[in-house]
Design a protein that fits this description.
Blueprint: E1 10-18, E2 24-28, E3 32-36, E4 44-52, E5 56-66, H1 92-110, E6 133-139, E7 142-143, E8 159-164, E9 167-173, H2 182-195, E10 212-219, E11 226-232, H3 237-250, E12 256-261, E13 273-278, E14 283-287, E15 290-294, H4 304-318, E16 325-329, H5 335-341, E17 346-351, H6 354-366, E18 372-376, H7 379-387, E19 397-400, H8 409-418, E20 422-427, H9 430-440, E21 444-452, E22 462-469
Parallel strand pairs: 3-5, 7-9, 11-12, 16-17, 16-19, 17-18, 19-20
Antiparallel strand pairs: 1-2, 1-4, 2-3, 4-5, 6-8, 6-10, 8-9, 10-11, 12-13, 14-15, 20-22, 21-22
Helix pairs in contact: 1-9, 7-8
């Protein structure tokens, strides 16, 4: 009986599902949901109830009595402490099934759609070392793992790695990450070994002072370009030049070094000012035969190989024609615009960021594409202007690739007013995508859905939806 289940009770469960925050789901007496961290569907576990609510309980995993056939040994020594690869202990085929369920649940529970068929997720060719960008943070407040705590007088004053969830300043000191490349790990450890012995100060929000802030590495699959971006609070030319000389000597794979300067209190790895220490100050990537210039602040899909698969999926689903005019909303640096440019009559890209629009225009010129134009404007405001001018531009297809928050409700209203024949909605968040598609179902039918896995071992999933105007 549910009433008999109390805090600190120890029970056995079979895990039959997994939640979006990585905890497995077991059901006490076949009904009452109990969340179990670090468990895998198919595990039989012994757990201790630590928090009981009306509809669910949270527990602590005490023992895996019988491991799931889907359970594997994680590659990374930091798994379970680092917040990055939450499904690294689950075989990849099962990860894809879980992501397929995430999309289905979003459209049924959030979107209110019935009998939605979600095809098999298009998996990633590489499940390790697949990212083209990694960001590391510096901290003078190192998070200690249980192994670290066994080391007497361990130094906690210098760390470079990843944030611990719920702790703004604490950083897990990382020596190896399986997300980008072995060269990235060399750069990470070289950077620590260079600055730590010098006692170089680290920025802290507590005093708004300190030198080191972030280390970002961007890597091209196309031409082996590799950018190291050292983000600091202020300039120290002598120190950076010393770091640069040794970096070039020890890690010649690093083709360019940038020192970005930011005194913003926001703890984000972006800076408006940067100095190119050596190299070009940018790298180039190639997607679908098109070259893209990537500067320190450029937003670009972080899995280049899967990015091509994502764009190919969107273009195939769209079934684009040579006489069609396309509107690309939230176009960023023009990646999707250029990818589809040869398939259609024209593309017009809209994006809020002036810097991204400048980069999109530069990328079009770089590739000799002359049927793409770009405009810096808020998408909602652009759509309002578009619907207010019935005799103006007429687009047959509208592509949307918004941020995780999805589209503004007013933007959905304007899309309904405009009545483009086809909408192609690319999203990194099926929950907000399902919400937005529900806003559009008054005039649009779902024709196709296709999830694409850009981020193996995480719960993140890209999803492409085609909507056709009714009638």
């Amino acid at each position: 009986m549910l009433e008999n289940l109390k805090k600190d009770d120890v029970i056995e469960l079979v895990i039959d599902d997994i939640g979006a925050e990585s905890s497995g789901i077991g059901r006490f007496n076949g009904e009452y949901v109990v969340f179990v961290p670090k468990s895998v569907p198919g595990d039989t576990v012994r757990v201790k109830i630590r928090k009981k609510k009306k509809k669910y309980a949270e527990s602590t995993l005490l023992e895996i009595i019988q491991p799931s056939p889907f359970r594997i040994e994680p590659e990374c020594e930091y798994f379970g402490t680092c917040n990055g690869c939450k499904m690294q202990h689950i075989e990849y085929a099962k990860q894809l099934e879980i992501k397929q369920s995430i999309v289905k649940n979003a459209f049924e529970r959030i979107g209110g759609f019935e009998n939605v068929t979600i095809p098999t997720v298009l998996g990633s060719e590489d499940i390790y070392y697949y990212r083209n960008k990694l960001e590391f943070s510096f901290s003078n407040d190192r998070w200690l793992t249980s192994e670290d705590m066994l080391i007497e007088n361990i130094d906690k004053s210098f760390a470079v790695g990843y944030h611990i969830p719920g702790f703004n300043e604490k950083i897990l000191d990382i020596r190896a990450c399986y997300l980008q490349s072995l060269t990235t790990n060399k750069i990470l450890n070289f950077t620590r070994d260079f600055f730590k012995p010098k006692g170089t100060s680290i920025y802290t929000t507590k005093t708004h002072s300190g030198y080191l802030r972030f280390l970002t590495v961007r890597k091209s699959i196309y031409n082996k370009g590799l950018m190291v971006n050292l983000i600091t609070y202020d300039e120290n030319a002598e120190l950076v030049n010393e770091y640069a000389a040794l970096l070039r000597q020890e890690i010649p794979e690093a083709t360019t070094l940038v020192n970005s300067i930011t005194q913003s209190k926001a703890q984000v790895a972006l800076a408006n000012n940067f100095n190119v220490i050596y190299g070009d100050g940018f790298i180039e990537e190639k997607i679908g035969g098109y070259r893209f210039k990537i500067t320190p602040n450029t937003f670009f899909q972080t899995n280049s190989k899967q990015c091509e698969k994502l764009f190919e999926t969107a273009a195939t689903i769209a079934d684009l024609g040579k006489e069609e005019n396309v509107l690309d909303l939230y176009c960023g640096c023009g990646a999707i615009s250029l990818y589809v440019s040869a398939m259609v009559k024209s593309v017009h890209g809209v994006e809020l960021s002036n810097e991204s629009i400048d980069m999109a225009s530069e990328n079009a010129e770089l590739n000799g594409v002359n049927n793409c134009t770009f405009e810096a404007m808020d998408v909602k405001d652009y759509l309002e202007k578009l619907t207010a001018s019935p005799g103006g531009e007429k687009f047959d297809v509208i592509i949307l690739d918004p941020p995780r928050s999805g589209i503004h409700p007013k933007a959905a209203e304007y899309l309904l007013q405009y009545e483009a024949k086809k909408l192609i909605y690319v999203s990194c968040n099926p929950a907000t995508q399902a919400r937005d598609v529900a806003l559009l179902k008054e005039k649009y039918n779902i024709i196709s859905i296709q999830p694409v896995d850009m981020f193996p071992h995480t719960f993140h999933i890209e999803n492409v939806v085609r909507l056709d105007l009714k009638g």
